Amino acid sequence: ALAGLGPKATIGVKVPSVTGLGTIAVGIAKAGADVITVSGCMGGTGAAYSGSIFHAGLPLERGLTEAHQYLLANGLRDRLRLCADGGIKFGDDVVKALALGADCVGFGTALLVAENCVFCRGCNHGKCPVGITTQDPKRQETWMTKHNPELKETSLDQRYVEARDGVVRYLTCVAVHVRDTLRQLGFTHPRELVGRVDLLRQLETGNPRWDRLDLSELLLDVRPDPTR
Predict the structure, then answer these.
(1) What digits encode the pLDDT tens for the residues 71-108?
(2) Which residues touch 190 (CB under 8 Å, ≥6 apart)?
(3) pLDDT, tens digit, for every residue of 194-206?
């Protein structure tokens, strides 16, 4: 997701989606960062503490929108790129993140699942049952040869062909979904969608609790020329 940032993009700061992130983002920008990655509460790897996974941060949309708005209002938006991650799985998630101000997105859990992760949340123990997050050659070999008997006599690197192909298939599906959505909106490049909150609207869910939620701050268009 960070490909193409160029050789000058050497300083990246990752921050959780929290209240007041706009002020923090302005400070990070003034300090000379090239990339700010806003991570929502729906992310988290198995290597993190369970308390951090389930109880840290706010929804991605809250922090991402505030960071984008504050940077834009202070004339700093062009100095860096905003990356969004945390719970992004589908093309719709990518499109909404771009419209809320992200320049790029990051995939974590979804990619691990695509390469055979069974989501046991045991990355930090070094005993991954499918041989992804482990340095134990026996565990790696057992999983790959079990699902690919024909690869038994090949090298360990070749046994990860299935995992690689799974990731390629997944990202291709997401890219096709994003491309189709952009075409429906009349855009030719994802860059044209960045910050276009005017294309988003709150839908009624039928759940009184959710329908009372005020999302007006997230949909505030602070662009100097909203017609563009």
Answers:
(1) 999 999 999 999 999 889 999 999 999 999 999 999 88
(2) 98, 178, 182
(3) 999 999 998 888 8
Neighbour tally for 184: CB within 10 Å: 8
Positive or negative torsion for Cα 123, 129, 131, 137: positive
The residues with which 83 forms a beta bridge, in sequence order, are 37, 104
Q: What is the pLDDT of residue 121?
A: 73
CA-to-CA separations, 116 to 124, 125, 143, in angstroms, rounded: 17, 18, 10
Q: Measure the N-to-C terminal CA separation of the chain; round to a whole number of Å.
A: 26
pTM value? 0.81
**How many other C-beta atoms can be found within 10 angstroms of the C-beta atom of residue 11?**
13
Sequence-distant (6+) residues with CB within 8 A of 49 are none
Distance of CA 173 to the CA centre of its chain: 16
Q: How far apart are CA 142 and CA 109, in angstroms?
A: 22
Task: Provide the pLDDT for residue 1.
Answer: 40
φ/ψ of residue 20, rounded to 5: 85, 15
The Cα 34–Cα 27 span in angstroms is: 12
CA dihedral sign, ordered 84, 55, 127, 146? negative
Give Dmax (Cα) for the chain.
Answer: 62
Rounded Cα distance, 210 and 203, in Å: 10
